[in-house]
Automatic annotation (TrEMBL):
Record family assignment: Belongs to the purine nucleoside phosphorylase YfiH/LACC1 family.
Species whose genome carries this gene: SAR86 cluster bacterium
Keyword terms: Hydrolase, Metal-binding, Transferase, Zinc
Pfam families xrefs: Cu-oxidase_4 (PF02578)
Keyword Transferase in record: yes
Name of the protein in question: Laccase domain-containing protein
Catalysis performed (reactions): adenosine + H2O + H(+) = inosine + NH4(+); inosine + phosphate = alpha-D-ribose 1-phosphate + hypoxanthine; adenosine + phosphate = alpha-D-ribose 1-phosphate + adenine; S-methyl-5'-thioadenosine + phosphate = 5-(methylsulfanyl)-alpha-D-ribose 1-phosphate + adenine
Entries under InterPro entries matching the protein: Cu_polyphenol_OxRdtase, Cu_polyphenol_OxRdtase_sf, Cytotoxic_necrot_fac-like_cat
Record-level Gene Ontology MF annotations: copper ion binding; hydrolase activity; S-methyl-5-thioadenosine phosphorylase activity
């Protein structure tokens, strides 16, 4: 049984030469006591939500059966993520770790598991190529965006959705994080703020900065804060729950 609710959200994003004003009609729906947030139908993007039942604690085969039964997809795949830069194309080795994918198969769903990191979904205008990246601060410091968008620049992935992730207000960081980026030749000062000795990182702006340097034409769509919206999302920094994640699921 599906139960539908609607969230009407207006966003304005100002970032260097990118200026976007748009309306997102986000639909919250429920199937078998699992809640989801629908973001888009072209491509399909949904996010599993916090609720009576947690989609992420199902085992992989259960998630796959659920997706095939309730969304009519041919298959479903997610994978072990390790805050690295490895991504697969079409097929993957289940014994290996990945933090992203680039696919072109229609009606086959892929999931990114996060609990404060950024799930980044990108696609081309013709909806023939779809990329998903798990972008936490560790992956960003290792260059997952530069490496992935650079490697697949010919796929014209000019549309991007940033899923639920932690906002600057709640993202306290230490000097060790700053040093990780410094060792890669990156200066984070413009993305940091310090109040009463507490340093906070704007990971949203950091991610946008990296995308804009690679493809300034990108349309960036921004999502909600995983920490602040406790009724909707799981947050590692807020809850410290190891096995509960928001899964951003997408397919062509």
């Amino acid at each position: 049984m599906k139960r539908n609710f609607h969230l009407n959200v207006n966003y304005q994003v100002t970032y260097k030469i990118v200026w976007i004003t748009y309306k997102v009609d986000m639909e919250i729906f429920q199937i078998e006591n699992f809640r989801f947030l629908r973001i888009s139908r072209m491509p399909n993007i949904i996010v599993s939500l916090r609720g009576v039942k947690c989609f992420s604690i199902l085992d992989f085969e259960e998630r796959k059966r659920f997706m095939r039964k309730n969304f009519g997809v041919k298959g479903y795949r997610d994978f072990n993520q390790v805050h690295g830069t490895a991504i697969f194309q079409e097929t993957h080795d289940p014994t290996l770790n990945y933090d992203g994918f680039l696919v072109s198969e229609n009606n086959f769903a892929y999931g990114l598991k996060t609990a404060d990191c950024i799930p980044l979904i990108s696609w081309n205008d013709d909806l023939t190529n779809l990329m998903g990246l798990h972008c936490g601060w560790k992956g960003l410091s290792k260059g997952i965006i530069e490496e992935s968008f650079g490697k697949f620049s010919g796929f014209d992935l000019c549309n991007t959705y940033m899923g639920p992730h932690i906002s600057k207000k709640f993202f306290e960081v230490k000097e060790d994080l700053i040093e990780k980026f410094s060792k890669q030749g990156e200066n984070l000062q413009s993305f940091l703020s310090s109040v009463d000795g507490v340093i906070r990182l704007d990971i949203t702006r950091l991610c946008l900065d990296k995308i804009s340097k690679i493809n300034a034409k990108n349309m960036v769509q921004q999502s909600l804060c995983s920490y602040a919206n406790s009724e909707l999302f799981y947050s590692w920094r807020r809850d410290q729950e190891k096995d509960r994640r928001n899964i951003t699921i997408t397919w062509l």
